[in-house]
Write a structure and sequence with these properties.
Layout lengths: L1 E17 L6 H7 L6 E6 L3 E7 L4 H9 L11 E20 L2 E23 L7 H38 L3 E3 L2 H35 L4 H8 L6
Parallel strand pairs: 1-4, 2-5, 3-5
Antiparallel strand pairs: 4-5, 5-6
Length: about 230
């Protein structure tokens, strides 16, 4: 199971020199355009193992603790939830031009990965039991697959952010307040552009995880132990 969180929260400004030729504001601002460095931080997430719930309480836990609705089969004895997230922050360089401001996106930092990975294992099974070990091994495979998808997909996310950030031109604003707001609007544009890619990331997650959640695999897993 997966959930994706988006955040756009941090930014700062560097105010440059004063450019005072009022007749060439737009030209000067456009000429300040330059490469926008993009830094990617991949968060593989810490795994939290919970072994104090009955399987019948898994869905309730997801609703209460992770704001997720799920309809789970009665046969579910283990569950992995990877809460994916995409966060963006950046800096703007602002140059005073007489009574106006030229705002240029200076750099972008993105964090892509899992804010939380939770593995639920039915408390019916003691930690040293065969059943517990088999369930944990299966769920750890889900953790591995989610992280593998993240590793594969991260370069694509960075490439998209590079393209969008490079396409955002410097802009002229009339007040300092508007200049400060301009950065959040620039970052919001990047974030919005990435959403289709994040949707495809979710699809790929599902495909990889469903590949091991088959009747054949469940049957093979069940046959490994005899005290279900």
């Amino acid at each position: 199971m997966r959930k994706i969180l988006f955040s756009l929260v941090l930014f700062s400004f560097t105010f440059g020199g004063n450019y005072a030729k009022a007749d060439r504001y737009d030209d000067f601002c456009s000429a300040s355009r330059s490469q926008v460095p993009v830094n990617l931080n991949i968060n593989y997430g810490e795994v939290e193992y919970l072994h104090d719930l009955k399987h019948s309480s898994f869905a309730r836990y997801l609703r209460r603790e992770m704001d997720m609705k799920a309809k789970l089969a009665q046969t579910v004895r283990g569950l992995t939830v990877a809460e994916a997230s995409f966060g963006i922050q950046g800096n703007a360089e602002v140059t005073k031009m007489g009574n106006r401001y030229c705002v240029r996106l200076a750099n972008v930092d993105i964090t892509f990965g899992y804010s939380r990975i939770v593995v639920l294992i039915d408390k019916k099974y003691k930690e040293k039991s065969c059943e517990y070990k088999v369930i944990k091994e299966h769920e750890d495979t889900h953790v591995y697959l989610n992280r593998q998808v993240l590793t594969e997909f991260a370069p694509r996310i960075k490439q998209k952010v590079n393209e969008i950030a490079a396409s955002i031109p410097p802009r002229v604003e009339y007040t300092k307040v508007r200049a400060e707001k301009a950065l959040s609007e620039m970052l919001a544009k990047v974030q919005e552009a990435v959403k289709p890619d994040m949707a495809e990331f979710r699809i790929l997650q599902d495909e990889r995880n469903q590949a091991i959640d088959t009747k054949e695999n469940y049957r093979a897993t069940t046959n490994m132990c005899d005290r279900w």
